[in-house]
Amino acid sequence: MESFREQAKTLIERLLADDPSLLDRPVKEAVERVSRPPSTPVSLYKTMASADTEYEITLPTGTKRFSVKMRSTSYAWRYSYSPGKVAASENPYTSVPAGGEYYEEHLELAAGVKLYVSCSTAAQTLEGTAWR
Predict the structure, then answer these.
(1) d(Cα 17, Cα 37) in Å, to the nearest integer?
(2) Would you say 129 and 44 are in contact if contact means Cβ atoms under 8 Å apart?
(3) Which of helix, strand or coil describes residue 67?
């Protein structure tokens, strides 16, 4: 089974075969970016000292994929891309069960994106890796 990257590359190659004039500079650069696998890891780490308090993790510019999880597998946690939501469990937020991991793939973040996190248990650590 082809990976997403391989499927995207095949589709772009078919489009270009039908109409070579599409191969202007921006399209060529986009094809090269999609074809290039992530190669630079960046550690993500946040100590959440207080329970039900919002903490912020900034994903680095150029992130192509990332994953985050609690260091302890005993506690659930919450995340949102909107500030002011996770501490009081106010929508929109997403719960991650104890031992669970949150990850996203096939990204091309142009600017640092903030992920807001919280846990109902104090003194917990969220850890993970972003790949650029």
Answers:
(1) 24
(2) yes
(3) strand
**69 Cβ contact list (under 8 Å, min separation 6):** 96, 100, 101, 102, 126, 127, 128
Q: Comparing C-alpha atoms, which of 77, 78, 68 is closest to residue 43?
A: 68
- pLDDT tens track for 89-107: 899 999 999 999 999 988 8
Estimate the crossing angle of helix 25-35 against helix 4-18, to 10 degrees.
160
Tokens of 60: 């680095």
DSSP secondary structure string, 71-96? SSTT--EEEESSTTSTTTTPSS-EEE
- Our CA dihedral for 60, 3, 128, 29, rounded to 10 degrees, sits at -10
pTM of the model: 0.72
How do residues 27-80 score in pLDDT, each as one tens digit? 666 666 666 677 789 999 999 999 999 999 999 998 999 999 999 999 999 999
* Cβ-Cβ contacts under 8 Å for 8 (sequence gap 6 or more): 34
Amino acid at 52: D
